[in-house]
Amino acid sequence: MKIGFIGAGNMGGAILKGYAKTAAQNGDQILVFDINEEKRTALEQQIPVVSACSSEKELARSSDVILLGVKPNMFETLLPQIAEECTSEKVIVSMAAGVSIGFIQSYLGSEQRIIRIMPNTPAQVSESMVAVCRNQHVDDQTFRQVFGIFEAIGRAEEVDEALIHCVIGVSGSSPAYTYMYIDALIQAAVDYGMDEEKAKVFAAQSVLGAAKMVLETDISPEQLRINVCSPGGTTIEAVNKLMENGFMDHVKEGFAAAVEKSKAMTK
């Protein structure tokens, strides 16, 4: 396949780099266009399977799969520019929050094959969680091929587009909440005399390990918490204080705020 990336910013660039090794193994070619000429030239020079294009139209014309990595407010400008090149055989992949499959179809036609994804920023270290939605024109074989792009940068799951707002709350935005938690642990450790760099390692590795316990055992997060909390011990003392201060409720409120914002901005 020829897989084209329009926009190679933080997310688009992370997906491109994450898939490059798999692309080489599969015999795929990656095309890229970014308004920053230096960026697209650097990608072409650094990654053997990448070729830079001089315009969005050239990339759309030459690609089998077109990933749109531009900001949501650019779609009304971009889609008309590439509409002529987007034949029904091509697959359009959008990663923009608030841009529905229906909105893209309104510019590219009701027969266009469209996949919508919601990745998150850990794509930069190949640990992304990617939700993948498709319209009725994307057949299973094509879907599996495109789905493989996102498995190369972490984990991917197919969901109905109706769940995309929920996905934003639970994975799209949640790295930010997790960074806040890690940062609070670091600051507290520094206050108690630990070097900041060492505190970062202790806090981040503990979060990484806890996440792997959730993913790699059959034990529920609640039970895992209980297992750590010896009666009268230090952990249960901390957990009780967090519960007393509404820790769980605050996380749920943040989640809900992200979901409602996603609903409000969707077009």
TrEMBL record:
Cell location: Cytoplasm
Major enzyme class: oxidoreductase
Catalytic activity entry: L-proline + NAD(+) = (S)-1-pyrroline-5-carboxylate + NADH + 2 H(+); L-proline + NADP(+) = (S)-1-pyrroline-5-carboxylate + NADPH + 2 H(+)
GO molecular function: pyrroline-5-carboxylate reductase activity
EC number: 1.5.1.2
GO cellular component: cytoplasm
Binding site for NADP(+): 6-11
Pathway as given in its UniProt record: Amino-acid biosynthesis; L-proline biosynthesis; L-proline from L-glutamate 5-semialdehyde: step 1/1
Family: Belongs to the pyrroline-5-carboxylate reductase family.
Domain Pyrroline-5-carboxylate reductase dimerisation: from-to ranges: 161-265
Protein name per UniProt: Pyrroline-5-carboxylate reductase
Gene Ontology biological process terms, A to Z: L-proline biosynthetic process
